[in-house]
Amino acid sequence: xxxxxxxxxxxxxxxxTSFVVEGWVRTRRGNKNVSFIALNDGSTIHNIQIxxxxxxxxxxxxxxxxxxxxxxxxxxxVASQGSGQAVEISLQEIKVHGTADxxxxxxxxKGHSMEFLREIAHLRPRTNTFGAVLRLRHAxxxxxxxxxxxxxxxxxxxxxxxxxxxxxxxxxFRVTTLDINDIPRDETGKIDFAKDFFxxxxxxxxxxxxxxxxxxxALSEVYTFGxxxxxxxxxxxxxxxxxxxxxPEVAFSDLNxxxxxAEEFLQYLIRYALENCSDDxxxxxxxxxxxxxxxxxxxxxxxxxxxxxTEAIKILEASDKKWEFPVSWGTDLQSxxxxxxxxxxxxxxxxxxxxxxxxxxxxxxxxxxxxxxxxMDVLFPKIGEIIGGSQREENYDKLMxxxxxxxxxxxxxxxxxxxxxxxxxxHSGFGLGFERLILFVSGMSNIRDVIPFPRTPRxxxx
Length: 462
Ligand code: 4AD
Ligand code: MG
Hints:
By secondary structure, the chain is α+β, with helices and mostly antiparallel strands. It has 2 domains: 6-98, CATH 2.40.50.140; 124-171 and 206-449, BirA Bifunctional Protein, domain 2 (2-Layer Sandwich), CATH 3.30.930.10. It is built from 12 helices and 16 strands. The chain has helices at 6-11, 114-119, 128-151, 209-219, 255-276, 278-287, 292-301, 309-318, 335-345, 396-405, 414-421, 434-442, and strands at 18-30, 34-40, 48-53, 70-79, 87-98, 154-155, 161-162, 174-175, 202-204, 221-229, 242-251, 305-308, 350-356, 372-380, 384-391, 427-433. Helix 5 crosses helix 7. Magnesium ion binds at residues 377, 385, 388.
């Protein structure tokens, strides 16, 4: 007989029918008359209860059915005697696929700290919390593709290995096949990258945007959704060295259109989670963050506040908060400032626009004032920046001037500049950090706990 997923079985009304379930034992308890096995197969946060009548089974037959063991159980679906579930399985036959020695199995007990679970990232998917987070990641990925597909955007695959630094921050992981113990050098003593695999310096990408722009200037509306890498030494609960990013790029679109898209997109995703992941959200709400569901509902029911950077600085300067990082016009906002604006001042998500050009990337469209650019950051409660984006500079001369001012190597940028020489168009886009989205939707407090295998400074074990 084929197995039935626990998620399906819990909804089934076929009482009296025989089923096979397979999964991992969460607990087994009972007495000499009856034994209760709580089984989970990851299809849902809920377990199915399997009841073994100890007049048919011996203790010896069930001795390996311990927490963490993997079993296959055959039995009849019956209405449950206990509260907590409508149906349960009355056990007829059991096979242990894999035992889990109670002496050594790390998840023997409940209630481990998040820090401990990070040390056993290979096993933590078997906990309720990580099961919920992993199912949420899946649902959000699917919803992202659905949102853009329904709008007629095309999913574009941008390269992971690149020769350019989109954000210009120099925080890139080098990709090389050169022998690091015997690096080839030219006559002047410089590393001879002509001898490297690609014949030039290459790195892991920090963003798919530049290539996304090439796509938008041909297909009008594209998006990327892929891994990005940043070698920044930030040990914060919101930074990873490897994270996933969604980057829509839209031709014939200005900063206002870009803000509209970002707001509609985030609200769509959160609504999707509320409608499709209610069991997992309820679990996370009860376990970690009692305000999670109300916070999610708040975000879909309120327009985001759109505020000029200059105005935000005035608000921050006027507040009597003691800032860890001082703030004045021209400084980049830190998470403490972003969260103050969102959580204390406006009390709703904020889109900050028109940042000083000196703290933003070279590609952003320059405003008439000569000081600011058409940048936008979407700021969320508990998170701070969740989206960063802008209208792009489509004028060749202005873009070129900026590239030279910022000493960006022109030889790496000729292909990007070509789009401004041939059929340039106004266009805009943004990047949503996927793990920051999952942080917000799951209510977890550390980004290391919303990706299966986090990469952070000094951590790449699993
Ligand atoms: O603001 P960022 O650096 O923008 C870009 O990369 C643009 N090229 C995007 C675009 O316009 N197409 O990054 C975008 C988002 C941030 O708002 C944040 O959510 C996330 O990516 N992010 C990170 N997430 C986790 N760990 C990190 N180290 C992150 N750095 C950025
Ligand atoms: Mg940013």
